[in-house]
């Protein structure tokens, strides 16, 4: 069999790609748009026995996340995979190498399933935690997910991830990987605190002369009285999801040994709007919503030091009493936590492209704030 890749578009695979398809990483950092390549390892799909479905699924998810990705390259297992990995990670000029390389397939136990072994040949550093997160996501749906072998890590300035050769495995894997892409690529470019940073703030001034305390008053600290208060803020999690939101879990994720206050917001579905009964709401997210939510959280983290941020927005059909938005902000002291939580909720509602259609008691529906 020829080692030339079988391109599902029936167009010959190009060696270097056009200049337009390889934006500079500096531009990617400004826009949050990165360049990805999807390689599918499947001997039968490469031979045209059946069409591959995992590759198009990966490409669609990457594009919907706002990144650039050409159509998938499908090759036979084994040496053809090595040839493509070598081409993209070694032969291409550094500026043309992808920011993300997804290799789907060849992660099982068949004799020719060699994708993880090939991938590791090119990795400078492995990221085992990424694979553990991918397996954990798969286990929510399929107990055999742990049988999928894989490797994840960085090769030069490329994040490389092996995923199963199934649509479900690709969806699970990319739901873990895509939210990490901006953080990883910026760190590879030397930004030590990228992805969850805040610029060093001016020294916090001393408080004004104290007022007479009220009965029962207990003195509290001032934001800035400890080095952690001026340390870079951390975006722990920023996620758009269809799963039910757990307020306690989100607040616990925000908390740490250095935080003395966690301020949380829960956006709950109420049973009325404008005097009319409401039975349920449908939340619809634009494909870029996940990226925008991450960006909004990063913006707030850059404006305020010393906080930990968790934000999750639910989509799909929600009933009265369900939570649509959970935000938790932890800080050393309550005032800073209240301030940042309030600012972040406003920013999310203003900027993240998620829309709601409410179902009214009389059977009619209407979009809200459109």
UniProtKB/TrEMBL annotation:
Chain segments carrying region Disordered: 1-30, 188-229
Domain MoaB/Mog, residue spans: 37-184
Pathway: Cofactor biosynthesis; molybdopterin biosynthesis
Keywords per UniProt: Molybdenum cofactor biosynthesis
SMART domains membership: MoCF_biosynth
GO biological process annotation, one example: Mo-molybdopterin cofactor biosynthetic process
CDD domains from the UniProt entry: MoaE, MogA_MoaB
UniProt biased composition (Polar residues): 1-12
Lineage: superkingdom: Bacteria
Biased composition range(s): Basic and acidic residues: 19-30
Name of the molecule in the record: Molybdenum cofactor biosynthesis protein MoaB
């Amino acid at each position: 069999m020829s080692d030339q890749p079988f391109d599902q578009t029936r167009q010959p695979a190009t060696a270097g790609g056009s200049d337009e398809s390889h934006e500079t990483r500096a531009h990617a950092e400004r826009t949050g748009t990165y360049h990805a390549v999807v390689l599918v390892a499947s001997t039968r799909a490469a031979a045209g026995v059946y069409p591959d479905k995992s590759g198009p699924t990966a490409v669609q998810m990457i594009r919907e996340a706002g990144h650039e990705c050409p159509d998938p390259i499908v090759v036979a297992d084994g040496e053809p995979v090595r040839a493509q990995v070598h081409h993209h990670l070694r032969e291409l000029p550094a500026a043309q190498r992808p920011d993300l390389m997804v290799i789907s397939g060849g992660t099982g136990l068949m004799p020719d399933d060699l994708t993880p072994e090939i991938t590791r040949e090119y990795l400078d550093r492995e990221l085992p935690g990424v694979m553990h997160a991918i397996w954990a996501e798969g286990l929510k749906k399929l107990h055999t997910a742990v049988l999928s072998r894989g490797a994840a890590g960085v090769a030069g300035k490329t994040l490389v991830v092996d995923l199963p050769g199934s649509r479900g495995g690709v969806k699970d894997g990319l739901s873990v990987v895509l939210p990490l892409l901006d953080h990883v690529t910026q760190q590879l470019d030397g930004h030590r605190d990228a992805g969850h940073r805040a610029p060093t703030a001016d020294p916090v001034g001393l408080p004004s002369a104290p007022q007479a305390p009220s009965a029962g008053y207990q003195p509290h600290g001032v934001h800035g009285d400890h080095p952690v208060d001026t340390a870079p803020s951390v975006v722990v999690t920023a996620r758009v999801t269809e799963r039910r939101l757990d307020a306690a879990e989100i607040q616990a994720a925000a908390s740490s040994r250095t935080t003395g206050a966690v301020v949380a917001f829960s956006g709950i579905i109420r049973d009325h709007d404008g005097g009319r009964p409401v039975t349920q709401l449908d939340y619809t997210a634009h494909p870029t919503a996940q990226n925008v939510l991450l960006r909004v959280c990063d913006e707030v983290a850059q404006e305020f030091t010393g906080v930990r941020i968790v934000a999750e927005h639910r989509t799909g059909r929600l009933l009265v009493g369900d939570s649509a938005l959970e935000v938790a902000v932890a800080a050393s002291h309550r005032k800073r936590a209240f301030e940042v939580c309030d600012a972040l909720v406003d920013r999310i509602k203003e900027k993240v492209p998620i829309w709601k259609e409410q179902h009214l008691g009389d059977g009619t529906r209407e979009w809200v704030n459109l």
